[in-house]
Design goal:
- By secondary structure, the chain is an all-alpha fold.
- It has one domain.
- It contains four helices and no strands.
- Helix 1 runs antiparallel to helix 2, helix 1 packs antiparallel against helix 4 and helix 2 packs antiparallel against helix 3.
- The protein is elongated and about 55 Å long.
- It comes from Alpinimonas psychrophila.
- InterPro entries: DUF4233.
- This is DUF4233 domain-containing protein.
- Keywords: Membrane, Transmembrane, Transmembrane helix.
Length: 118
């Protein structure tokens, strides 16, 4: 089986996928905290955390498509809304939204500069 050359990933795609995967790990740990605190049922805490983790991982893998960064923005909003269950998630969600914003805008700028230089 021969494979062709690998597709060149954009800087925006690389930075975005790094942010989303790291965020998925944090969401998984936060789901365990929410479950341990007992504020909501384990189905909501662990099921919701698992669903958000899967959405983050899936979006990280789909960032090559032009619509995927918009899904990433929606997921950042959901991450902030997790603060309803654990107040500290408002802060963590806002931090990840700031990192996501930086990754998206810096990635676009760097990709533009790379295209201009070549």
């Amino acid at each position: 089986m021969t494979t062709g050359p690998r597709r060149q990933r954009s800087v925006q795609e690389l930075l975005g996928s790094i942010v989303l995967v790291f965020e998925a790990v944090v969401v998984g740990l936060a789901a365990l905290v929410v479950n341990g605190l007992g504020g909501v049922s384990p189905v909501v805490a662990l099921g919701g955390g698992a669903a958000l983790c899967l959405a983050l991982f899936a979006t990280a893998g789909l960032l090559r498509y032009p619509w995927a960064p918009a899904v990433g923005w929606v997921l950042q909003g959901l991450m902030i809304l997790c603060g309803v269950f654990v107040t500290m998630m408002f802060v963590i969600g806002a931090l990840f939204a700031a990192i996501w914003t930086y990754a998206m805008f810096s990635g676009v700028r760097i990709d533009r500069e790379k295209r201009r230089a070549s």
